[in-house]
Amino acid sequence: MMEITRKLTFKAIGLLIVMFSLNVAGYAERVATDKNSYPKYPWSFSGIFGSYDLSSVQRGYLVYRKSCASCHSTEYMRYADLQQMGLTLDQIDKMAKTDQILDGKDAQGKDHYRPATVVDYIPSPYANKLVAQSVNMGKVPLDLSRYAMTVDGQADYIMAILLGYTKSPVDFKLDQDGLYYNRYFPGHQIAMRPPLVKGGVQYTDGTNTTIEQQAKDVTTFLSWTAHPHLIERHRIGIMALIYVAFIAVLTFIIKRKVWSNVK
């Protein structure tokens, strides 16, 4: 029994070491292959002990609703998911009722809409892809539900794009009207207009609504939508490490006790 416990403990420790090594290697590969240099920012949710600043997540949701939701959807999120960023069901219900959900046809065969409820998915700003393409230069704006986990650099990249709008250099010519120069976007030309303006949203907690603050908050929100269970995963991971360490120490003590009289 002692031998089996010892082997299982060593296997668990070995598995954790392998997982950590793969994670570090994957991060290093992303950094090494990143063709677009952009600033690195400090985030409360980075690292094994990271966690989300839920006040920032809530502010970021306000920025998203004000500056992004008219073009970009979060279709893989339900209103009820917003509970995980610290809102109550009553608060969420009030937010949901401001949106309309397509609910079949009425007696005349016309589209019937109803106020959204907490169990509904957050609707797209467009009725369908054709409508989205028709008002966005032939392209469908990105869904932001899981966007932060699909790009290299994740939060750093999103933050850099939001703050990267500037006047184009004299020797740089945009390919067509309707494009904007961005220092960090691949090719430096982006169809999305600068989404943030100073004072563009009012924070209820009194936080100053600079462009930088709005960018930080909405980036935190988008990272949260991509990793809504990050805090729980970190908690489980830390508990697992504590358990493995406890088993390792217990095994060592028992081994010393059992073999203490053997010479």
TrEMBL record:
<keyword id="KW-0479">Metal-binding</keyword>
<dbReference type="GO" id="GO:0046872">
    <property type="term" value="F:metal ion binding"/>
</dbReference>
<dbReference type="GO" id="GO:0020037">
    <property type="term" value="F:heme binding"/>
</dbReference>
<dbReference type="GO" id="GO:0016020">
    <property type="term" value="C:membrane"/>
</dbReference>
<keyword id="KW-0472">Membrane</keyword>
<dbReference type="GO" id="GO:0009055">
    <property type="term" value="F:electron transfer activity"/>
</dbReference>
<feature type="domain" description="Cytochrome c">
    <location>
        <begin position="55"/>
        <end position="155"/>
    </location>
</feature>
<feature type="binding site" description="covalent">
    <location>
        <position position="71"/>
    </location>
    <ligand>
        <name>heme c</name>
    </ligand>
</feature>
<dbReference type="InterPro" id="IPR009056">
    <property type="entry name" value="Cyt_c-like_dom"/>
</dbReference>
<feature type="binding site" description="covalent">
    <location>
        <position position="68"/>
    </location>
    <ligand>
        <name>heme c</name>
    </ligand>
</feature>
<protein>
    <recommendedName>
        <fullName>Cytochrome c1</fullName>
    </recommendedName>
</protein>
<feature type="transmembrane region" description="Helical">
    <location>
        <begin position="236"/>
        <end position="254"/>
    </location>
</feature>
<feature type="binding site" description="covalent">
    <location>
        <position position="72"/>
    </location>
    <ligand>
        <name>heme c</name>
    </ligand>
</feature>
<dbReference type="InterPro" id="IPR002326">
    <property type="entry name" value="Cyt_c1"/>
</dbReference>
<dbReference type="InterPro" id="IPR036909">
    <property type="entry name" value="Cyt_c-like_dom_sf"/>
</dbReference>
<keyword id="KW-1133">Transmembrane helix</keyword>
<keyword id="KW-0812">Transmembrane</keyword>
<feature type="binding site" description="covalent">
    <location>
        <position position="192"/>
    </location>
    <ligand>
        <name>heme c</name>
    </ligand>
</feature>
<keyword id="KW-0408">Iron</keyword>
<keyword id="KW-0349">Heme</keyword>
<dbReference type="Pfam" id="PF02167">
    <property type="entry name" value="Cytochrom_C1"/>
</dbReference>
